[in-house]
Amino acid sequence: MRPPLLDPFFAALTTLPGVGPKLDRLFGRLLGRPEGARMLDLLFHLPSGHVDRRARPKLRDVVPGTVVTVAVTIDRHRPPPPGRARLPYQVHASDETGDIVLTFFNARADYLKTLLPVGETRYVSGTANLYDGTLQIVHPDRVVDEQGLATLPLIEPVYPLTEGLGANAVRKALDAALMRIPALDEWQDEAWRARSSFPSFADSLRTLHRPPQPDDLRADRPAWRRLAYDELLASQVALVLVRAHRRRQPGRGRTGDGRLRERIVAALPYSLTRSQHGALDAIVADLAKPERMLRLLQGDVGSGKTVVALLAAAAAIEAGQQATLMAPTEILARQHLHTIAPLAERAGITVAILTGRERGRERDELLRRLADGAIDLLVGTHALFQDEVAFKDLALAIVDEQHRFGVHQRLALAQKGPAVDMLVMTATPIPRTLVLSFFGDMDISELREKPAGRQPVDTRTVPLARLDEIVEAVGRALDEGRRVYWVCPLVEETETSDMAAAEARFAELKARFGTRVGLVHGRMRGAEKDAAMEDFAAGRTGLLVATIVIEVGVDVPEATVMVIEHAERFGLAQLHQLRGRIGRGSGRSTCLLLYRRPLGETAKARLAIMRETEDGFRIAEEDLRLRGEGDVLGTRQSGLPGFRIARIADHGDMLAAARDDATLLLSRDPALTSPRGQALRCLLYLFERDAAIRLIGAG
Ligand code: ADP
Ligand code: MG
Fold first, then answer.
1. Residue nearest to atom 21 of ligand 1 (CA)
2. Which ligand is nearest to the CA of 325?
3. Per-residue CA distances from 51 to 63, 145, 210, 257 (Å)
4. How many helices (H) and strands (E) does the chain have?
5. What is the pTM of this model?
């Protein structure tokens, strides 16, 4: 139960004076809670900047173009002449050093007369300008009297707004909300708090919304850092609780005798790399432990994750249980089956595939064989989640290209067996800082070396204007028997327009090269896609025009040329993924990045990095630097997904401390019963990580 002390944070905004249903709806939109924003959402809506109104010059000294607050006497009002309402309403004012005109468009005369009474002194704040040699302020931001001046925020925060909701409404609501923050016990370690000069939680909020100095608003100053650390700590405490819960769940030690793995390894035309061995050893050791495994296998494209997955599955199957391998697309699932089936057969492992395409009797039969244990390894897509998919004894679930699946889907798979071990694989090398914050509860294995015999890819950038030459070069490559991918641009983020671009290019290239050209895009039916991929893999076509569908995982080692049209429109991670489709076999590979001029700075930097390196980890880091962390995982947020205050660039340095802090405090106080533990429960509620509290002591 949430401590009643926290109720004010969760109160509806309509409890604030002046916030009715209409404003409530606007706040809901602004704060991303259409179902009704709460005080908490408003308080965590931090300013994006500030206006500094501290300059208080005499009129003679006003610098045009700057924000000033001037003390003036109101001299006279000059409404627009009758019938000329489009002209401005002007109020003339002065001090002992000069004159100023306050200009209002579409003004209400009676309102201005009370706001600026002739003969009185008023404090006027706004951006001053020179117009026809006269100093003026158009639509002053603030007009106050002596009394108002005392409460005028001289450093005024600026908030992100939404249409229909003005700065004043947000400021007023915050004024009231700040008054209602209850006093809370400190949940931070006192020594750490002192060392970091953190204000209290409440003071941090007050400082950010009412900054005494402009610098106080900066993300790297104590107030923001304090709140960011609170958020990081909340997420790490939650992760540790989840992990402890998982550990308490009965797992099963699974120890295979190695016989299937031996046969698979013997059937491989190559030997495993050191890092493949290392990853496999870690997985096998995890499987043997009585706790549940949750391991992330990171490896650049082409680093050979599939065979590691197969060997992991074999280890589970040796122990008499079942395994499943899930891929994000149908093409990939089939490709996995294609790679795995011959090796599995040599080892005596029964493999089957389940996607949206298996239907009717065939599907029923497959599900029956799965339920009675005749199938050892089931490869598939999202179709694996369906309720009717029941295993006899699922021991290991492997999820390929993890970032395309959500955590709840991962959990859905885990529910398909009594104590499922989980291996997730990703080809997007995620910087460690991010792994920690998103998957803090995972162990990590990395495949850092490339398999032996890989050729570096020769990457060049070519302006689109030279398309004709490129087509010539592609023709020569085809004549030499090389296989070429031609990747079409993302026109808009819709499949339809991608498809149109790809089809148009396909038609042109086909007119030129005839039946040697194939086409694959996301809108094709499954069987057509397979056929196009198979034709290309078998060499019946030599040139495959494709959309981004080939981005992930497709493996045709004979392909040695890739043309990417409008490379400037792709993200760095995407380009890297795409290029990873070539350079897989022994032949020398070339990647041509076609771009349209003029190139923006970021696009230029991206293409330069692509020319410079093939190291996926370095590319991921550059990507992070160029675009911000949100995009690395394919989300387009400026902050960390799931985080409201913390930002990797400004606060990532505190992540490790938060993790250690969480681990230590929970080892001392696993049920959060000490005074600090009680305070931490409040923290978890405030950052909405409280679901983890329910795991304390459960199961
Ligand atoms: P990814 O990590 O991108 O999924 P894959 O598993 O598809 O990589 O492997 C890419 C290619 O490398 C495949 O053709 C695979 O057979 C080959 N391969 C995997 N491991 C090795 C190795 N140790 N030595 C040589 N080739 C390998
Ligand atoms: Mg793969």
1. 451
2. 2
3. 16, 20, 12, 70
4. 26, 21
5. 0.61
- The answer, yes or no, to whether any atom of ligand 1 lies below 6 A from the CB of 305, is yes
Q: Is 270 in the pocket of ligand 1 (CB under 6 A)?
A: yes
Contacts of 220-224 with C-beta under 8 Å, sequence gap 24+, read 220/650, 222/196, 222/197, 222/198, 223/199, 224/46, 224/645, 224/650
Tell me how far apart the alpha carbons of residues 236 and 258 are, in angstroms, rounded to a whole number.
37
Domain ranges (residues) in the chain:
54-152, 259-447, 457-613
Six-digit token string for 669: 């106080």
Among the bound ligands, name the one nearest to the CA of residue 305: 1
Test site for ligand 1: of 264, 268, 270, most ligand atoms within 8 A of the Cβ: 270
Q: Are 610 and 579 in contact (CB under 8 A)?
A: yes
Give the bridge partners for 256, in sequence order.
none
Distance 557 CA to ligand 2 centre (A): 13
Question: Is the confidence at residue 454, as pLDDT, over 80?
Answer: no
pLDDT for 590 beyond 70: yes
27, containing H or E segment: helix 21-30
DSSP 12: B
DSSP codes of every residue in 376-436: SEEEESGGGGSTT---SSEEEEEEESGGGS-HHHHHHHHTTSSS-EEEEEESS---HHHHH
- CA-nearest of 477, 694, 467, 499 to 593 is 467
583 C-alpha to ligand 2 centroid (Å): 14
Overall fold of domain 259-447: Rossmann fold (3.40.50)
Tokens of 380: 């598939």
Q: Is the peptide bond before 598 cis (omega within 30 degrees of 0)?
A: yes
Query: Under the phi-then-psi rule, with left for phi > 0, alpha for psi from -120 to 50, and beta for the rest, what region is 483?
Result: beta
The single-letter code of the amino acid at 581 is R
Give the architecture (CATH level 2) of 54-152: Beta Barrel (2.40)
Q: Which residues pair with 398 in a beta bridge?
A: 325, 423
Q: What is the pLDDT of residues 399-410, one digit of tens each?
A: 987 655 555 566
Mutation pick for ligand 1 pocket among 308, 454, 584 (CB with most ligand atoms within 8 Å): 584
Q: Taking the CA atoms of the chain, what radius of gyration do you get in angstroms? A: 32
**306 pocket-lining for ligand 1 (C-beta < 6 Å):** yes
Give the whole-angstrom CA distance, residue 471 versus residue 594.
12
Q: Residue 239 belongs to what H/E stretch?
A: helix 222-248
- Band (pLDDT 50/70/90 cuts) for residue 373 is very high
CB under 8 A, 24+ apart: contacts of 603-606: 603/568, 606/568, 606/571, 606/572, 606/575
Q: CA-CA distance, 314 to 254, in Å (whole number)? A: 11
Residues with Cβ within 8 Å of 70's Cβ and at least 6 positions away in sequence, in order, are 56, 57, 58, 59, 62, 95, 100, 123, 124, 125, 128
Which residue's CA is the nearest one to ligand 1's atom 24?
451
Give the single-character DSSP code of 596.
Answer: P
Check pLDDT > 70 for residue 629: no
- What tens digit of pLDDT does each residue of 76-124 get? 999 998 888 788 999 999 999 999 999 998 888 999 999 999 999 999 9
**Topology match between the domains 259-447 and 457-613:** yes
Domain 457-613 matching CATH 3.40.50.300: the answer reads yes
